Each structure stands twice: as C-alpha cells, then as structure tokens.
Amino acid sequence: DQQVKQNSPSLSVQEGRISILNCDYTNSMFDYFLWYKKYPAEGPTFLISISSIKDKNEDGRFTVFLNKSAKHLSLHIVPSQPGDSAVYFCAGLTGKLIFGQGTTLQVKP
Amino acid sequence: GAGVSQSPRYKVAKRGQDVALRCDPISGHVSLFWYQQALGQGPEFLTYFQNEAQLDKSGLPSDRFFAERPEGSVSTLKIQRTQQEDSAVYLCASSLGQGTPDGYTFGSGTRLTVV
After folding, report:
1. How many CB atoms lie within 10 A of CB A26?
2. Which of residues 80-99 of A touch B (CB under 8 A)?
3. Over the stretch B27-47, which tens digit does the pLDDT of each residue have?
4. Per-residue pLDDT tens for B78-91?
C-alpha cells in the first residue's frame, strides 16, 4: 500500500531553468506534506513543507503546490542550480513521516 | 549534540549474525523514529518512541527486529539472525515533539550489508 508515490525516478534540467518534481498521495489524513533533499551518504534534510489546508508555500527558490482534489503536490525550483542535484523525497506527515520513492534531480551546468 | 549521530556508519554482517545499531538523538528531543531505506527506495517507517515508550512498532518487518530506548535518550535497533533482505540503510530521526513539519532531524544512517 504505497500511500505516497513519486512516479518519476529521475529528472534532468539545465542550470537556470525550472525543475518540477511531482508527488501523488492516497491518504487524506496527512496533516502536512514535506519535501526532503538527500545527498549520498547523508540523511535526508528538510527543505519545505505545506499544511494540508494550504495550496501554496514559497521559500526563496522553492515553491510547493498542493492540489487536494487531485491528491497531488509538486515542488518547483526556480532557478535550478547545479548544487540542487540530489535525491528529492516527498513525504506525508501524520505523526510519522511516510515517504515516496524519491526522484533524482540532475541540474546540468 | 548538534545533530543526530548514528553508529556504526557501515556494518557488514554474515548471514545469521546479530547486529546492533545505535542512535544518539539531539539532546532534549522527545520523539525518536527508525526508518529502513532499501536501495533505490524511500525510507520506510519501522518504529517510534516517545521518551522511553515505544508507541508504534507497526513497521518492524519481523520479530527478528527489536528496538529499545531505555532511558529516553539513546536508542538501539537490534536485528537478530540477519538475512540478505535486511541489507539497507537504517536511518534514525528525532524531534522535539510529534507532528511539527520542520522538526524532524535525520542522522546519516547506518549502511548494513548482509553477506
């Protein structure tokens, strides 16, 4: 039972362009949705979150959009930078975090 | 400490061997979580502690997996009679409470390889 799904295993974009990472969920009980960034041999680090009662949250170059009717959220990174290259996980929160499978983002200089 | 510390960073175990993985959470953090991350997958929830009480162990895959946090600080995840499918990165996270969206801090994990 995959409550959180990231259907794109990888994404490659050019430096300066927009990166859009997508996530779908099935559990309507999540209080928050979060995005984590993970570099090799390190633990996931928190990037940005959105409350389930909001539809948009912005923090610098990062914006998360939530479409509750479609049970879909997305992370936009504008402009993308080579240092953004990492694995991105979306997660739903109901006390504990439920993660998607991750999307590997490569930003090419 | 400044972050969540996990040890060892790497562990190679022969099939059938018992292993113990340690997590030192951030001082004062009440909640502690263990996750298992298989290669190419997202972290999967194993178990949750609030102080010394294990409130949720629904993610433990079998009775070979056991976790404890006897004094409400350091936690140990023990795997008995390891099998090849136990090979994964084991992540520990801590937080002040439960449900704060930006409050979960992860350690770097222990990579367990069962040969």
Report:
1. 12
2. 89, 91, 93-99
3. 999 999 999 999 999 999 999
4. 999 999 999 999 99
